[in-house]
């Protein structure tokens, strides 16, 4: 217990008002360059893997006509059907966005939007008063 030293090096900085609030104080751009290199390497590996997968699919397509042409055409139809289903889902979601009818509601906050379905006319009785049985 003779040589006890702190684990961390504590540095005292004499910074002015702006220096204390500087977000980029102590930033080293070399560390960001390493991050960029790591992401580029990952993207390159991903591209290489996808290219290998595409080559495997092409090889399988080239080998399938030898086994039977009917099987290959069914596979193409499945891919086309899947694409059509995806397109239909996109079309339905776009139509759902346009199906909402929004109306301005006068409020003290300057007006908010809400669907017409949720609004009631002032003369109508409130929902919580309808069924008092």
From TrEMBL:
<keyword id="KW-0539">Nucleus</keyword>
<feature type="compositionally biased region" description="Acidic residues">
    <location>
        <begin position="71"/>
        <end position="81"/>
    </location>
</feature>
<keyword id="KW-0507">mRNA processing</keyword>
<feature type="domain" description="Pre-mRNA-splicing factor SLU7">
    <location>
        <begin position="15"/>
        <end position="133"/>
    </location>
</feature>
<dbReference type="GO" id="GO:0000398">
    <property type="term" value="P:mRNA splicing, via spliceosome"/>
</dbReference>
<dbReference type="GO" id="GO:0030628">
    <property type="term" value="F:pre-mRNA 3'-splice site binding"/>
</dbReference>
<feature type="compositionally biased region" description="Basic and acidic residues">
    <location>
        <begin position="44"/>
        <end position="70"/>
    </location>
</feature>
<feature type="compositionally biased region" description="Basic and acidic residues">
    <location>
        <begin position="82"/>
        <end position="105"/>
    </location>
</feature>
<keyword id="KW-0508">mRNA splicing</keyword>
<dbReference type="GO" id="GO:0005681">
    <property type="term" value="C:spliceosomal complex"/>
</dbReference>
<comment type="subunit">
    <text>Associated with the spliceosome.</text>
</comment>
<feature type="region of interest" description="Disordered">
    <location>
        <begin position="44"/>
        <end position="115"/>
    </location>
</feature>
<dbReference type="InterPro" id="IPR021715">
    <property type="entry name" value="Slu7_dom"/>
</dbReference>
<comment type="function">
    <text>Involved in pre-mRNA splicing.</text>
</comment>
<protein>
    <recommendedName>
        <fullName>Pre-mRNA-splicing factor SLU7</fullName>
    </recommendedName>
</protein>
<dbReference type="Pfam" id="PF11708">
    <property type="entry name" value="Slu7"/>
</dbReference>
<keyword id="KW-0747">Spliceosome</keyword>
<dbReference type="InterPro" id="IPR039974">
    <property type="entry name" value="Splicing_factor_SLU7"/>
</dbReference>
<comment type="similarity">
    <text>Belongs to the SLU7 family.</text>
</comment>
